[in-house]
Amino acid sequence: MRHRRFAASVLVVTLAASGLLLAKQTAPLLPPLPPAHQPPPATPELPRAEVLPVVSLPSAPVLQAAPKADDLTIEQLLEAVDRVQAQKAELEKRERELLQALRAKADRLRERLDKLGVGDRPAGPPPLPPAG
What we know:
The chain has a domain at 1-19 and 77-121. It has 2 helices and no strands. It has 132 residues and is mostly helical. The relative contact order is 0.11. The chain is flat and about 110 Å long.
């Protein structure tokens, strides 16, 4: 259980740091694309070809190193702790929901296997002890 909590804590801190990095991004990853190239004018005998516009895709943010805790103000530290605690509560709630669903499905599967006589326990009443 300690390992799971530690892993969850590490995950929460990592997510919080990633969120801080993504929130502060302003520079695009790639430079903007040049304007679309226009084809030469068509000859009078041929119909003019339709030119499709160039569509640029949104750029992915550039990841920067997380600021050190010592570099943050007290207010920033308090806000970061609040965010981490909120994320941790959400993760713990999600974990409880997942474990509850897993237990319910495992119980249903165990019941089906028991009915078929495939589970750990044989179907029907337990065997009688040998006569002495």
